[in-house]
Amino acid sequence: MNSMVMILYRILQKKNASQIPRILANAIDFLETHYDDYAQDPVFLKDIHEIGAVISTIVQPGINVELASRLLPLMRANHIPIRMASHITAVGAAFNFVSSTINHSCDPNIFLFFEGNQIRVRSLKKIEAGEELTRCYTPEHLCIVRRQPWLKHGDFFDCWCRRCAEEDKEIRALAESGGTTLGEFTRAQVSLDILLNNTRSAAATPNIYPPGFSDCNYVEQTLVELATEPMRIGEWPGHIDPMPSVRLTLGGLMVGQGQVSRGTQYALRGKLVCRRRSGPSWVNEMIELTMHSLAAYSVQDSDSPEFADPRVPTTRDADILLCGYLYRVRSEAVKWFGVGTDFYTRVQDLFNATTEGRNLVHRLDSAEFEKEFTVAQEKFLKWAGIPAEFGIRLRS
Ligand SMILES: [Zn+2]
User: Fold this and answer.
1) Alpha-carbon distance 293 to 112, whole Å?
2) Which stretches in the chain have pLDDT values below 70?
3) What is the separation, in whole angstroms, between the first and last Cα of the chain?
4) What is the pLDDT of residue 128?
5) Residue 148 C-alpha to ligand 1 middle, in angstroms?
6) Which end of the chain has fewer CB within 10 Å, C or N?
7) Measuring CA to CA, how many Å separate 174 from each of 114, 179, 209, 230, 344?
């Protein structure tokens, strides 16, 4: 919300100074505000009126309270989240008339990313002449149980695209076979989302959230309870399994609290055990996995008794896996973002900094390194209880 208030402030400031371009002024009248939908939520309505009053009286004297509070839902409904290289969560929000008019699809054909202060648009698949451009309003990897409430409460529509129809069929079959209902799945899902959000926030800003959410044992226990009884997660097909992002977050939390081995196992399972093997957000998630968990694993004390067990991957194995994953991530970054973009440059810098400090015997593009990488990855997968089919190939 903070970044949206900042955008609103800037728009009002320009509007006051009559610097607002005509196209943007028209857009504000043209775009969907969902004001009436938001009005159903008294808390949100109260919030936007209070923020509107603050902007009108303190920040921008002379602005109509009603205008400020009406523009806020417009920002909320039409903003584009700003995601940068190596950041999974949005670092801010932008408002752009053209991008705001692009419709949603859960199986989109384009994605947007930021290059300096520009929004870049790139295709995700072949687009035929005359075909509508669509982007996904939710993080694409979310399963239907998480996408639908997001679209319903954030964008006020029910999506019935082909992907939603297929996943809806699968989830109903899953509920019926276990004698549960979709409602139970949804409630457990909401609990999972709250757990995940609070865990992320507690890790970023300790002392504000209830202490339990920064305690990885509490988070793990709650996760296991939710995953077994209401969700019966072991029975879900991989592509609609809602757990990967939760496992990845929990893994990061554990690593941050010094439980490097268990945290790395969770993070590896969270990232690798899913059907999505490529794509722009895959790049960022892989960077999180490698730079947080594997990097911490690789700098542990190699004389520690834990490494006496030959089944436990060594810190050297972690070096190899880390460099191999970044090698693949770099080629994915070229594919999705293009050489010469800020995004690619950041990934390249990360790659150089990481690989240079690790005395690799072979060049990363050699057959010898590929063999070393395959052996190291097999060891990690076995140790983390991940089926071999989920391994990542060095080359796409
Ligand atoms: Zn859909």
Assistant:
1) 28
2) 1-5, 12-30, 59-63, 84-89, 206, 208-211, 228-242
3) 38
4) 96
5) 8
6) C
7) 39, 9, 34, 12, 41
Cα(258)–Cα(6) distance, rounded to whole angstroms?
A: 37
Q: Is 47 helix (H, G, I), strand (E, B) or coil?
A: helix
CA distance 256 to 372: 28
Q: What is the pLDDT of residue 354?
A: 93
The amino acid at residue 142 is L
Q: Rg of the Cα trace of the chain?
A: 23
User: Alpha-carbon distance 226 to 144, whole Å?
Assistant: 18
Q: Which helix (H) or strand (E) holds 23?
A: helix 22-30
Report the C-alpha gap between 64 and 108 in whole angstroms. 38
Rounded CA-CA distance 168/152 in Å is 15
Distance 167 CA to ligand 1 centre (A): 9
Task: Map tokens 């399994």 to a residue.
Answer: 241
Token couple for 316 = 């050297």
Paired residues of 119 in beta bridges: 114
Query: Quick one: pLDDT at residue 313?
Result: 97
Q: Which structure tokens are listed for 363?
A: 């060049």
For residue 256, which of 211, 285, 291 has the smallest C-alpha distance?
291
What integer pLDDT is reported at residue 321 of this predicted model? 97
CA dihedral 247, 274, 170, 189 (to 10 degrees): 20
Q: 121: helix, coil or strand?
A: strand
What number of other Cβ atoms are within 10 A of residue 214's Cβ? 22
Cα(154) to centroid(ligand 1), Å: 14
pLDDT of residue 164: 93
Distance 169 CA to ligand 1 centre (A): 13
Question: Domain residues of the chain, as ranges?
Answer: 2-135, 140-241, 274-396
Beta-bridge partner residues of 112? 121
Angle at 99 between CA 98 and CA 102, to 5 degrees: 100
Find out whether 284 and 271 touch, Cβ atoms under 8 Å.
no
Query: Residue 79 CA to chain centroid, in angstroms?
Result: 17
Nearest-angstrom CA–CA distance, 44 and 50:
10
Ligand 1 centroid – CA 152 distance (Å): 11
Gap between the Cα atoms of 260 and 295, Å rounded: 10
Cα–ligand 1 centroid distance for 162 (angstroms): 7
User: What pTM was estimated for this model as a whole?
Assistant: 0.81
- Cα separations in angstroms, 263 against 1, 142, 172, 197, 289: 31, 22, 33, 18, 10
Q: What is the pLDDT of residue 209?
A: 67
What pLDDT, on the 0 to 100 scale, is given for residue 292?
86
